[in-house]
């Protein structure tokens, strides 16, 4: 607001950005035909289409009209990311796309509260059906969603494959051609979410049920049922998995198409029926009707001499009667007779073979056509907006997908109706875009260059004018008594409209034209070109009559769908039904009213070639379509006129915030306010004009720059509103918080003060009780000292808990108070027992055996032999030698240790090995047995108290095998003697002597070993004949 120059800079930046983006996108052709330099040249127009088509740029604008060229291949431009790219974006900000048209219609509906419609037009095969599906997919993905809304979205999307299966077929020009017209209203609630829908269908091509041209097929559902249905379902329906078996499916000689997968399409249709809300019973009955049509096609007739006919295939009638739930005999009679009323009396008149076949085909068409109408009504029921209160406030986007202009080798009644419909749509397009443009500019006083265009109202009047139009003449010929025929209809046309400039017959044509026209044809000069129509079948297809008795049979059906399709009121209603052409004309009139009540958006579809090949662009075909779509006229209008126009009050209300003089309100004349606004925005004179009630803006980019400025302004306005609201909100919140904080503080301070007072009282009481207890601590337990004593006990127990011994060897223990001395001792024993139990539980068998040996050694040698303390930390081993038996064989379980043996004569030292077995001690010399001492003969063991390693093994004298006691010396004397004591069970027979040991030499003689203390170990024979041992003393006992 404060700096208009800054705003101008911003606008310039936005425009520059947009223009650079346009340049980048338009390297291959321009994306808006309005930007073509030579906009009046049809060649330049088609060349621009061709350039973009070659680069897979299939969409191009003419102002707000979207031109779409069918690529005949899948393009990666319909992903969710692409949808998000176009969501909520200005129409001209991104490249042309069907999503841009969809989003623009949606945003216009939301912002301007006006219903919208999207008119998709083009000839068969141009891609209209696919375009309508893309629009629905866009709304399904981008609109707000809830559980109910998601259900509606799913049903909207799933209605497409169902309607395509029952209403689309392969034609020469399109493998998925819509053979009916469809107008769908999508309803949106106030949030912009799709909440309902409604479908109107027009002129189903029922004749396709019984006949197809060469290279064409019947409706998709027949082939899908045969190819995809389960075997059990086919068995119930009496069908075989071979389309060639059914007469209604072989007329076009094209049962299979490479581009169509009937089996997978069947799965899609079955799933879609479930999503839409069809019950299993309804699906079964629907498929029964479809199967009955196939069986009807296989009903064969033969003629009698009298001229009447009879049925030769009773099996088919049985199937049909069962599937439709009607009486077999009644149905059979109705297919060969017709009921006539003469003078109030009903008679049954037999039919000849040709009449019976026609009656059969008429029944097939009636069943299928009415079932299709029921199907559409069923879908409408599932899509209906259930909230009656809000349904009146729901906004609507209409979507028109209707058959395109058709010109075949043989054009009949269906092509006449289809092309009449396209004439009406072209007339609507002319009125809404071309003629209305000029009239609006003239009404507003805007001067511009008029554009010449072809007004096809003259053709529409030729077809639909009362009393003189082709439809009126056709109805009159159908209803008049006498021998009316297709030829008499043609003659009457020549008499009535023969002078019309757009009507020609063989009779009225010049010589050149007669060469290419049949005598049973008439030609209409449509806006799209010349079309010859063959009148054969016009009257029958317009009457679309069904014999009364066939109606009666259908009314008696037990099939619940057929009972809704064939009402019994038809049998009593004597009023003549409207003809097919009149019904279609009235339906089109209603459709035009619906479309005129909405703001239209246009999608013009073009097919690049007749061969349905990707990348192929046939210029002649495209030029023809450009002509009949009126694209050049539309372009000339857009270039001569203005791309955007709005009433002053709407424009000012939307953009007044962009100018300080018009914001927040303008009190003067509206035209002055708009003039002030556009001057402030910097509009150039050639960019806009001011009419009597509206402003006209010539270039879309001017409007785009204004929209960008509005978006930026919205942010600043929103920021101010947010700041004001946040300030007020925060102040109010602060006052509430401050008051609450004061109240909470007062309450909390009271609690804290009461808590402090209570703690002080408790502290004083505790100190008083502690002092009194200390004073009475030596007295017996009484009220004065019980608190103190309990505290002392508690303190000791907590101290003990923190300082308990961790191992068996830890002997520390806190000193207990006098009152807990006995309890302390008990606890100490329990603790030690627990530690010992834990220790014992964790030791291994090997360590247990080691400890057992150490215990024996302790019992025998502790405080008795000098070198015992040195042996305590040393582990006893299993053996000190390689385990060798006296025979030289290795053996486990022996204890062996090297020893020195002193001879009985002279005490000469000999190196020997001592082996302890389970039953004896063996002395060997290098695996040679020297002496075996059985443990039973071992009286005892003597050893000195000094640190020497000598010991004597005493044996009994009665043992003749022994030569006397054995005097041995070992470096591991404690270990060796402990092993001997355990193996021989002689723990109590080990004698520890202080000064000397007597031993037996043999033959009753005794020897003495004297032990003395010295500085070092010395063993020698003394002069007195004794064995003298001098050993150092290691401990003083």
Describe it for me?
With 1037 residues, this protein is an alpha+beta fold. Helix content is 47%, strand content 16%. It has 34 helices and 31 strands. It has an 8-stranded mixed beta sheet, with helices on one face. Strand 30 (1018-1021) and strand 31 form a beta hairpin. Helix 10 (280-297) runs antiparallel to helix 11 (314-324). The chain is elongated, with a radius of gyration of 58 Å. The two termini are 114 Å apart. Residues 1-26 and 883-892 have low confidence and may be disordered.
Rg over C-alpha atoms, rounded to the nearest angstrom = 58 Å
Note the overall shape.
Answer: elongated
Physical arrangement of strands within the biggest beta sheet: 23-22-21-20-26-25-24-27
Strand segment count: 31
Main sheet attributes: strand count, strand direction, barrel closure: 8 strands, mixed
The averaged pLDDT comes out at 86
* Alpha-beta classification: alpha+beta
N-end to C-end Cα span: 114 Å
Helix content: 40-55%
Stretches where pLDDT is under 50 for at least 5 consecutive residues are 1-26, 883-892
The total of helices stands at 34
Proportion of residues in extended strands: 15-25%
Domain Myosin motor: 29-711
Keywords: Acetylation, Actin-binding, ATP-binding, Cell membrane, Cell projection, Cytoplasm, Membrane, Methylation, Motor protein, Myosin, Nucleotide-binding, Repeat
Subcellular location: Cell projection, Stereocilium membrane; Cytoplasm, Cell cortex
Pfam families: IQ (PF00612), Myosin_head (PF00063), Myosin_TH1 (PF06017)
């Amino acid at each position: 607001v404060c700096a208009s120059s800054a705003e101008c800079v911003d606008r310039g930046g936005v425009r520059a950005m947009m223009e650079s983006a346009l340049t980048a996108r338009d390297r291959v052709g321009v994306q808006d035909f309005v930007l073509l330099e030579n906009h009046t040249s049809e060649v330049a127009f088609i060349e621009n289409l061709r350039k973009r088509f070659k680069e897979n740029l299939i969409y191009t604008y003419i102002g707000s009209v979207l031109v779409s060229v069918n690529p005949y291949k899948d393009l990666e431009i319909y992903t969710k990311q692409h949808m998000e790219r176009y969501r909520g974006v200005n129409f001209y900000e991104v490249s042309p796309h069907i999503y841009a048209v969809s989003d623009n219609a949606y945003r216009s509906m939301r912002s301007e509260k006006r219903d919208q419609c999207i008119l998709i037009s083009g000839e068969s095969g141009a891609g209209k059906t696919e375009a309508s599906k893309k629009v629905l997919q866009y709304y399904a993905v981008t609109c707000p969603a809830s559980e109910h809304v998601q259900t509606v979205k799913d049903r909207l999307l799933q209605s497409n494959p169902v309607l395509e299966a029952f209403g689309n077929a392969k034609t020469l020009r399109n493998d998925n051609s819509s053979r009916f017209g469809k107008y769908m209203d999508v309803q949106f609630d106030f949030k912009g979410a799709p909440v309902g829908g409604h479908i109107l269908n027009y002129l189903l091509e029922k004749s396709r049920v019984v006949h197809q041209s060469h290279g064409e097929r019947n409706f998709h559902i027949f082939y899908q049922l045969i190819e995809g249905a389960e075997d059990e379902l086919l068995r119930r329906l009496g069908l075989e998995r071979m389309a060639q078996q059914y007469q209604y499916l072989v007329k076009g000689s094209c049962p299979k198409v490479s581009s169509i997968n009937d089996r997978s399409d069947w799965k899609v249709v079955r799933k879609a029926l479930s999503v839409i809300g069809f019950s299993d019973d309804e699906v079964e009955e629907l498929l029964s009707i479809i199967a009955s049509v196939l069986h009807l096609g296989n009903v064969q007739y033969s003629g009698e001499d009298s001229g009447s006919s009879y049925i030769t295939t009773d099996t088919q009638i049985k199937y049909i009667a069962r599937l439709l739930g009607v009486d077999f005999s009644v149905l059979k009679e109705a297919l060969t007779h017709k009921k006539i009323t003469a003078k109030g009396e009903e008679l049954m008149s037999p039919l000849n073979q040709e009449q019976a076949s026609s009656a059969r085909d008429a029944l097939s068409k009636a069943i299928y056509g009415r079932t299709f109408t029921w199907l559409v009504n069923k879908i409408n029921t599932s899509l209906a907006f259930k909230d009656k209160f809000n349904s009146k406030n729901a906004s609507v986007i209409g979507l028109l997908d209707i058959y395109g202009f058709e010109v075949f080798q043989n054009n009949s009644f269906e092509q006449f109706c289809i092309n009449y419909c396209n004439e009406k749509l072209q007339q609507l397009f002319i009125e809404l875009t071309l003629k209305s443009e000029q009239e609006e500019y003239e009404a507003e006083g805007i001067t511009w260059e008029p554009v010449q265009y072809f007004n096809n109202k003259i053709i529409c009047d030729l077809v639909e004018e009362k009393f003189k139009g082709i439809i009126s003449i056709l109805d009159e010929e159908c209803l008049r008594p006498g021998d009316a025929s297709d030829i008499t209809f043609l003659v009457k046309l020549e008499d009535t409209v023969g002078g019309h400039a757009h009507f020609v017959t063989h009779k009225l044509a010049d010589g050149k034209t007669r060469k290419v026209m049949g005598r049973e044809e008439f030609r209409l000069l449509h806006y799209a070109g010349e079309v010859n129509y063959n009148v054969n079948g016009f009257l029958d297809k317009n009457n679309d009559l069904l014999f009364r008795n066939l109606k009666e049979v259908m009314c008696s059906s037990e099939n619940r769908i057929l009972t809704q399709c064939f009402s019994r009121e038809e049998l009593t209603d004597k009023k003549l039904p409207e003809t097919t052409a009149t019904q279609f004309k009235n339906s089109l009139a209603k459709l035009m009213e619906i479309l005129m009540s909405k703001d239209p958006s246009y999608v013009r579809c073009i097919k690049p070639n007749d061969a349905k090949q990707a990348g192929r662009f046939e210029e002649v075909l495209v030029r023809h379509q450009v002509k009949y779509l009126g694209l050049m006229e539309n372009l000339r209008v857009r270039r001569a006129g203005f791309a955007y126009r709005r009433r002053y009050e709407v424009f000012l209300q939307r953009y007044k915030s962009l100018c300080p003089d018009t914001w927040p309100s303008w009190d003067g004349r509206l035209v002055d306010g708009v003039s002030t606004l556009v001057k402030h925005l910097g509009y150039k004179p050639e960019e806009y004009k001011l009419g009597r009630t509206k402003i006209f803006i010539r270039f879309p980019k001017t409007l785009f720059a204004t929209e960008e400025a509005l978006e930026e302004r919205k942010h600043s306005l929103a920021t101010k509103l947010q700041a004001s609201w946040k300030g007020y909100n925060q102040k109010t919140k602060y006052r509430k918080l401050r008051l609450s904080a004061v109240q909470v503080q007062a309450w909390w301070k009271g609690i804290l003060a009461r808590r402090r007072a209570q703690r002080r009282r408790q502290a004083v009481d505790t100190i008083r009780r502690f002092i009194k207890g200390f004073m009475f601590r030596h007295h017996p337990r009484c009220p004065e000292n019980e608190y103190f004593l309990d505290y002392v006990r508690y303190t000791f127990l907590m101290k003990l808990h923190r300082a308990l011994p961790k191992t068996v060897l830890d002997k520390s223990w806190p000193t207990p108070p006098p009152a807990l001395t006995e309890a302390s001792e008990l606890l100490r024993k329990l603790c030690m027992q627990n530690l010992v139990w834990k220790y014992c539980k964790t030791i291994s068998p090997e360590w247990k055996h080691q400890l057992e040996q150490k215990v024996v050694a302790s019992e025998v040698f502790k405080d008795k032999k000098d070198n015992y303390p040195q042996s305590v930390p040393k582990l006893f081993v299993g053996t000190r030698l390689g385990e060798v038996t006296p025979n030289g064989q290795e053996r486990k379980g022996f204890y062996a240790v090297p020893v020195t043996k002193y001879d009985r004569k002279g005490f000469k030292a000999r190196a020997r090995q001592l082996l302890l077995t389970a039953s004896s001690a063996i002395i060997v010399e290098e695996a040679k047995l020297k002496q075996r001492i059985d443990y039973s003969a071992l009286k005892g063991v003597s050893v000195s108290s000094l640190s020497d390693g000598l010991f004597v093994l005493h044996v009994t004298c009665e043992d003749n095998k022994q030569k006397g006691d054995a005097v041995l010396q070992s470096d591991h004397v404690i270990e060796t003697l402990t092993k001997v004591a355990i193996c021989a069970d002689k723990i109590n027979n080990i004698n520890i002597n202080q000064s000397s040991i007597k031993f037996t030499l043999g033959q009753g003689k005794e020897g003495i070993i004297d032990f003395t203390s010295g500085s070092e170990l010395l063993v020698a024979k003394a002069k007195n004949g004794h064995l003298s041992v001098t050993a150092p003393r290691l401990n003083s006992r």
